[in-house]
């Protein structure tokens, strides 16, 4: 049932006919009326929220701001992971790596997906953000990565920030980024890549070394051309 709840709150409110506030909350009484949730009551919903290991949901008890009534009612939302473009979550901006409690941002993926990621970078795809965890499964991390991840991509957040890419921290501790104007976080912002067993992905290391050599050669060539152009002995 948790997977159904996650899908509805992150992606399916429109198709299920649910009204969603700009901050992502929907009325619990409306949620429990839809066919997908008809076998769930408020008490069971509270148990789902409290027992969710990744703290994906948040329950709120307050009046309907669009109603004249002051009666408090239950609301629920997903803390992140939306594909619904109108949702504006109360995210904490990250301005330096010091704003990340663990100081680490890592994306977990599969070997199959890595074949594309290593050349094109990470993509937010249909979601509003690319999701990054503050560590790896087993290190106390509770949200932001699947336990089944085979490849771990560590992000140089400061380098990306310096390039103008924005990052945020969700209410449940997931590091989020919209990436560049195309919705990608390019490979140049990968600090290192490992397998889930902690082994370096040598193919990536070789690719990076080759890229560094090419960039270094280009820089040397540019410096040489500049020096020649500025030399008084240079004949134009």
From TrEMBL:
Biological process annotations from GO: tRNA splicing, via endonucleolytic cleavage and ligation
Keywords, in A-Z order: NAD, Transferase
Enzyme Commission no: 2.7.1.160
Record has Cytoplasm as a keyword: no
Disordered: annotated span: 209-236
Catalytic activity: 2'-phospho-[ligated tRNA] + NAD(+) = mature tRNA + ADP-alpha-D-ribose 1'',2''-cyclic phosphate + nicotinamide
Keyword NAD set for record: yes
Gene3D superfamilies, per database record: 3.20.170.30, RNA 2'-phosphotransferase, Tpt1/KptA family, N-terminal domain
InterPro entries: Ptrans_KptA/Tpt1, RNA_2'-PTrans_C, RNA_2'-PTrans_N
Pfam families: PTS_2-RNA
An example Gene Ontology molecular-function term: tRNA 2'-phosphotransferase activity
Basic and acidic residues biased stretches: 209-221
Family: Belongs to the KptA/TPT1 family.
Task of the protein: Catalyzes the last step of tRNA splicing, the transfer of the splice junction 2'-phosphate from ligated tRNA to NAD to produce ADP-ribose 1''-2'' cyclic phosphate.
Annotated protein name in UniProt: 2'-phosphotransferase
